[in-house]
Amino acid sequence: MKDEEKKYWLGFSAFPGIGPLRFKHLLKFFGTAEKAWQADTKTLLQINLGEKLTAKFDHFRKTFQLDNYLKEIDKKDIKVVTIKEKIYPKLLSQISDAPFLLYVRGDVAILNEVSPRIGVVGTRKITSYGETVTRQITQELVDSGMVIVSGMAYGVDAVAHQTAIDNGGKTMAVLGCGVDIIHPRVNTTLYWQIVKKYGAVISEFPVGMYADKGLFPARNRIISGISLGVVVTEGAEDSGALITAKFAAEQGREVFAVPGPITSQLSKGPTLLLKQGAKLVTEAKDILEELNIKNQISKIKNTDQKSNLKLTKDEIKILELLQNESLHFDEIVRKSGISSDKLASLLTMMEMKRIVKNLGGGMYQVDL
Predict the structure, then answer these.
(1) pLDDT tens sequence across 97-140
(2) How far apart are CA 65 and CA 9, in angstroms?
(3) Which SS3 state, helix, strand or coil, does residue 171 take?
(4) Where do the domains of the chain lie?
(5) What CA–CA distance (Å, rounded) separates 88 from 112?
(6) pLDDT tens across 39-65, in order?
(7) What does each C-alpha distance from 303 to 88, 312, 355, 367, 368 come to in angstroms?
(8) What residues have CB less than 8 Å from 46, skipping those under 6 apart?
(9) Cα 245 to chain centroid, rounded
(10) Burial class, 104, CB count within 10 angstroms (exposed 0-12 / middle 13-18 / buried 19+)
(11) What is the fold of 303-366?
(12) DSSP code of residue 204
């Protein structure tokens, strides 16, 4: 695509009244975005753009500084990929309302589909259980070579992205705002980790657009549309993650759900999905088999390797306590009878041996 034509695609992207379906209609009628941009209002009315929208668009194109917008994009090192370009994700292009262009900040090559992509989503109000299962399954997916896709929100999204990074994997953050806007601000470090080294942040929304609750459903359809499937690890019945799962089902993607404690309100979302036919997941192997992807997970320790480790009686006692659940440091002290000073030393050594994992906040689990 010529740069001049691409400029007008960007102009339509920046105008809030033209979405993927209307843009497709304009492109079909006029042939190019440039001709559509420069069309007279009489013609725009004839193709049923509507009086209000036509007037709004006419005012926008007369006042919008398109060349300045291009300079801003270039200054911020943001790449723009249209649906007409080869690097545009093929899977995403197949959904009915595929974005006609994507803004990308970071490694634009991640858009190609050499490595399979999987969406990992869930509640913003993550529990310790949700964090544990999200980390475990995401780590296994990364070990299998999958790219992790999520929305960089609080909770499950942030844990999924960070776990991918911590394990040397790649991740894509699909934003409900412009790619130059970091939302929420608490994810600033995470944002720059992704952009600088571990993947890319992408969005269909124009540069400078701030996050708005009404934009998130549109963002969610991209998370599912760009992925082979979506995993919901934790969420309430009204969780936005279920919107992503709904889009996935409508787009012909696989939907996976992790069962949780029936006493938790944040298990009701995955439970509902399971009742509706989602695939039950307790480990990444369940996902890989369903997607017919060869399981390349190479766990550092399997059962036989653990049995060959030379563990002390106290280390064995700690492992037995953590076998079926994660526990707080104080709870391990109480149940094991080991002094806090000695336990701190033992846990540090066991972390170095990659036998246990520190989940933060004083919580520990077996390093699977």
Answers:
(1) 999 999 999 999 999 878 899 999 999 999 999 999 999 999 99
(2) 14
(3) strand
(4) 1-66, 108-290, 303-366
(5) 7
(6) 999 999 988 889 999 999 999 999 999
(7) 43, 17, 12, 12, 10
(8) none
(9) 13
(10) buried
(11) Arc Repressor Mutant, subunit A (1.10.10)
(12) S
The CATH number of domain 1-66 is 3.40.50 = no
Phi and psi, residue 331, nearest 5°: -70, -35
- Number of neighbours of residue 230 by Cβ within 10 angstroms: 30
Q: What is the DSSP string of 138-152?
A: HHHHHHTTPEEEE--
Q: What is the DSSP track for 35-74?
A: HHHH--HHHHHHTT--HHHHHHHHHHHHH--HHHHHHHHH
Q: Given a cut of 50, is residue 244 above it in pLDDT?
A: yes
Mean pLDDT across the chain, nearest whole number? 92
118 DSSP assignment: E
The domain defined by 108-290 folds into Rossmann fold (3.40.50)
Query: Mind listing the pLDDT tens digit for each residue in 283-314?
Result: 999 999 999 886 544 433 343 344 456 778 88
pTM over 0.90: no
Dist. CA 126–CA 162, nearest whole Å:
14
209: number of Cβ within 10 Å: 20
